[in-house]
Amino acid sequence: MKTRKILLAAFISAGFAGAAQSAMLLGDAGHGEQLYNAKCAGCHVSQFGGDGSGVFTRKDHHITTIEGLTGKVNNCNAMTHAGLSDDDINDVIKYLDEAFYKFEE
């Protein structure tokens, strides 16, 4: 019984920690959407078709945390030489979280 309570507390704490991290994301989602459309969408469209959002909505996507999303955006920025600043990256992450991932929920 005691073990179950400890495990339950750990799961609840992890859930609240993720929600708190997401709620505290820095960035401007509106500006992030503009940046995404200008610097990212073309590649996503060429790889996934449509409007490119399939990369976020497919069943086998691997991004399940804010940290994972941050790493992916940083990686894409480096690979494509998009030239996004740290503030720009925060904006894109905020937009993607609000539009697709909704980690805080």
Features of this protein?
single chain; mainly alpha; 73% helix; 5 helices
Describe the structure.
This protein is mainly alpha-helical and 105 residues long. It has 5 helices and no strands. The longest helix has 22 residues, at 2-23. 17% of the residues are buried.
Outline the biggest β-sheet: none
Q: Please give the share of residues in helix.
A: over 70%
Distance between the termini: 29 Å
Uncertain residue segments = 1-22
Which H/E pattern describes the elements? HHHHH
The share of residues in extended strands comes to under 5%
Radius of gyration: 16 Å
General shape:
globular
- Can you count the helices? 5
What is the overall pLDDT average? 81
Q: How many β-strand stretches? A: 0
Which structural class best describes the helix and strand composition? mainly alpha
Question: What secondary-structure arrangement, pairings included, does this model have?
Answer:
Layout: H1 2-23, H2 29-48, H3 54-57, H4 66-80, H5 86-101
Q: TL;DR of this structure?
A:
With 105 residues, the protein is an all-alpha fold. Helices cover 73% and strands 0% of the residues. The chain has helices spanning 2-23, 29-48, 54-57, 66-80, 86-101.
